[in-house]
Task: inverse folding
């Protein structure tokens, strides 16, 4: 058995991993998966670069940040989803204009869902200096903070936390992709030198991951998949069922975890626009991708 250290954020986007573990698909490939939940993007990125983790699954913008801001040699090897992201307000916030001078919560200030939030705010007339963007870490921390601190007025949240937020009285304002267009959120990425040294293990990992995803989305396994989310994310069964319905619908978890090139291109365009990188002209998405391992895994699986 070869141990692989995999790091993720907590959430429904990890359903394929949970399923592959539960069904023994990783074990069948000779892999022992050590799964860690990260508290924030900075710890994830630094840990992957330092070799504390082998594979990361999270918003692909983190991979771009590693390449462009930290000059790390990172490759995106697997797709995932569009994020299932929604913008939520405290119930006393009736409009975007009411957020002027208020505190909004982000994970880290310069990546992923923070940039999505900035872009949505900009579309509705608020620039970065018009509100206070406070980094507090992963979505569970943002949800807890908004529940406990009514001065935290808005945040982007994914599944299942957006459902829990609504049940706690927060107001869902919009779906992120309705505001910004196609978006590649969750993706699997690795350090390129590690991938070169572990080609067989990475291909086996992706093959098991795809088997887990196919199992989870098969109609015959719906009840079992919901039970898996209930157990692994410690959710009420009805919340797990609602989250699964969103994740498994059209536009949810990508078929066979294919990399959404249009979504990745839009992530790059968003960084160019909001952060002003590359002189405002985003590079090609292909710069960040290495599909060799995915192609080999999919071919052998089929």
Result:
């Amino acid at each position: 058995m070869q141990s692989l250290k995999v790091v993720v954020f907590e959430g429904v986007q990890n359903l394929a991993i949970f399923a592959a573990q539960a069904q023994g698909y990783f074990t069948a490939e000779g892999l022992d998966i050590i799964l860690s939940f990260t508290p924030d993007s900075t710890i994830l990125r630094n840990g992957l670069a330092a070799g504390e983790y082998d594979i990361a699954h999270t918003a692909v913008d983190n991979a771009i940040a590693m390449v462009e801001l930290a000059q790390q040699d990172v490759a995106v090897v697997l797709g995932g989803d569009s994020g299932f992201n929604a913008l939520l307000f405290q119930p006393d916030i009736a409009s975007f204009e009411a957020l002027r001078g208020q505190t909004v919560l982000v994970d880290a200030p310069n990546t992923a869902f923070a940039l999505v939030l900035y872009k949505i705010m900009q579309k509705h007339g608020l620039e970065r200096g018009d509100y206070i963007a406070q980094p507090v870490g992963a979505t569970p921390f943002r949800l807890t903070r908004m529940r406990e601190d009514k001065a935290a007025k808005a945040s982007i949240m994914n599944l299942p936390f957006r459902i829990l937020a609504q049940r706690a009285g927060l107001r869902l304002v919009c779906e992120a992709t309705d505001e910004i267009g196609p978006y590649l959120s969750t993706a699997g990425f690795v350090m390129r030198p590690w991938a070169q040294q572990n080609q067989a293990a990475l291909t086996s990992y992706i093959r098991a991951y795809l088997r887990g995803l196919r199992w989870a989305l098969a109609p015959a396994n719906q009840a079992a998949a919901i039970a898996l989310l209930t157990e692994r994310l410690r959710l009420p069964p009805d919340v797990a069922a609602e989250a699964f319905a969103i994740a498994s619908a059209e536009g949810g978890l990508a078929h066979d975890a294919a990399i959404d090139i249009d979504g990745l291109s839009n992530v790059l365009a968003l960084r160019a626009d909001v952060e002003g990188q590359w002189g405002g002209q985003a590079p090609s998405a292909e710069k960040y991708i290495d599909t060799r391992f995915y192609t080999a895994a999919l071919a052998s699986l089929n």
Notes: The first strand starts at residue 2 and ends at 8.
